[in-house]
Amino acid sequence: MDTAVARTPRARPGRTGRPRARAAALVTALVLAPALAGCTPTTPDEGFEVITAAGVERDAPSQEAAASAGTATTALGTDLYAALRSDGNLVLSPYSVAVALAMTRAGAAGVTADEMDAVLHADGLDDLHAAFGSLDAVLADRSGTFEIPGEDPVELELSFGNAVWPQTDFPFEDPFLEALARYYGAGVNVVDYLNDTEGAREAINDWVADQTRERIPELIPPGALSTFTRLVLTNAVYLNAPWRYPFEEDLTADGPFTLLDGSAVDVPLMRLAEELAYGAGEGWEAVRLPYVDGNLAMVVLVPDAGSFATVADAFDEELIGAVDAALRSRPVQLAMPRFEFRTQSNLNDALKTLGMPTAFTEQADFSAMSPEPLAITDVLHEAFISVDEEGTEAAAATAVIVGETAIPEDPVALTIDRPYLFWIV
Q1: Closest to 345 (Cα-Cα) out of 397, 401, 308, 405
Q2: Among 304, 311, 314, which residue's Cα sits nearest to residue 258?
């Protein structure tokens, strides 16, 4: 475990709005991972032209393909955790990153495509799109109203969206845009990076903020876009999920929390006595906290005292499988921190390290996207999570920014202030 700080957060939509201490107690949080997927139609910002892929229908989902997308996303998540891990808190959504990269992969070719497939743990373009399209469709109905014995009905909201933001009048290949519509439901919002870079940035950020219920208000910071930007691909995910077994608010009280450096701080500890899935292994304990729908859940992995580094170093798909296999229903008296934090990441270096450096260079091949030379300039990711007695609110968004690789020469200054010749041809 890592640091813990406190502040008074703003009210959560749909919640009581009471002040809650912020206990940033989780170092690893693969939030909105494989199980949290889907897509809703994009909503354009007023004043921006929207191109729809007329006649493009979503393919029928396949459970087998959806499962493969989940497996690939888990692998990408553990890869990213290893690449981004530090002594600070980290929350990320491998699903959001995977979808944004998969949409970008639709326009890649050659070595660029091969490297992206390796990072995405994909077998090829067709399988990649079919997998994420199926996962999207299979899980699109997670939201709903659910009953809790002895309580009023509660709402679980899971929403998601994909959008494409191309430069107006710039040539993009029709098959590329059609693939984004068929598999990802991505609408195309035309903007003008050349003449209104800030307007384009505001439009994209407004879309992300709307999709994430304002939890991610500024995914793309000032200066991230330029007159050389030609395309941005975005994914956004939002979750507001009540617990199946809510914690008793009256039982929450401050308790000691030991930091990685051995010092201790007081944090709000929520308490719950319930029949839960619990398991233990070499150097760790784990518990599964179901949300109200019975399908979504938070799994908390707690390393033994002094074993955090060992468990974190071993954090991969095999360990996740071992935790899942060890979970068994039994009476549990649980005390865990109430917490809230966010992580903002530029994933360029991590993705290069994981095996796709070419996409960021002049050697990038996005010829299936456009006949013009393009390369990825930035992959931006932000994730937010808040956990309290009632449940979990989480949001994540990813933007892949693509720009032209051919940088024009410096302009030549010419003032015709002396005798000259001219002719008409």
Answers
A1: 397
A2: 304
| Helical ranges in 276-395 per DSSP H | 308-313, 317-326, 348-354
The pair of three-digit structure tokens given for residue 293, joined into one six-digit string: 């729908």
Of residues 229, 236, 237, the one with CA closest to residue 205:
236
Q: What is the model's pTM?
A: 0.84
How far does CA 177 lie from the centroid of its chain?
A: 21
Interior CA angle at 195 toward 193 and 201, to 5°? 40
Query: Strands 28-30, 90-92: parallel, antiparallel or unpaired by DSSP?
Result: parallel
- The two three-digit tokens of residue 384, written as one number: 């937010």
CB-based burial of residue 36 (10 Å sphere; 0-12 exposed, 13-18 middle, 19+ buried)?
buried
- Whole-number percent of the chain with pLDDT over 70: 80
d(CA 46, CA 363): 37
DSSP state of 88: S
Q: H/E element holding 111?
A: helix 110-120
Rounded to the nearest 5 percent, the helix, strand and coil shares of the chain are 25, 30, 45
Dihedral, CA of residue 238, residue 382, residue 349 and residue 134, to nearest 10: 10
**Which residues are CB-neighbours of 265 under 8 A, at least 6 positions away?**
4, 256, 257, 259
Strand pairing class (229-242; 154-166): antiparallel
Report which of 145, 127, 93 is spatially closest to residue 292, judged by C-alpha positions: 145
Helix axes 125-138, 94-105, angle to 10 degrees: 140
Long-range contacts, 409-418 (Cβ 8 Å, 24+)? none
Residues 51-96 pLDDT 10s: 444 455 556 567 788 888 889 999 999 999 999 988 778 899 999 9
Q: Name the amino acid, one letter, at 49.
A: E
List, in order, residues 6 or more apart from 388 with CB less than 8 Å away: 15, 20, 247, 270, 338
Residue 142 DSSP label: -
How far is Cα 99 from Cα 299, in angstroms, rounded to an integer?
Answer: 23
Write out the two tokens for 7: 């502040």
The pairing of strands 154-166 and 187-189 is parallel
Strands (E), 106-228: 144-146, 154-166, 187-189
Say if residues 41 and 187 touch (Cβ distance below 8 Å). yes
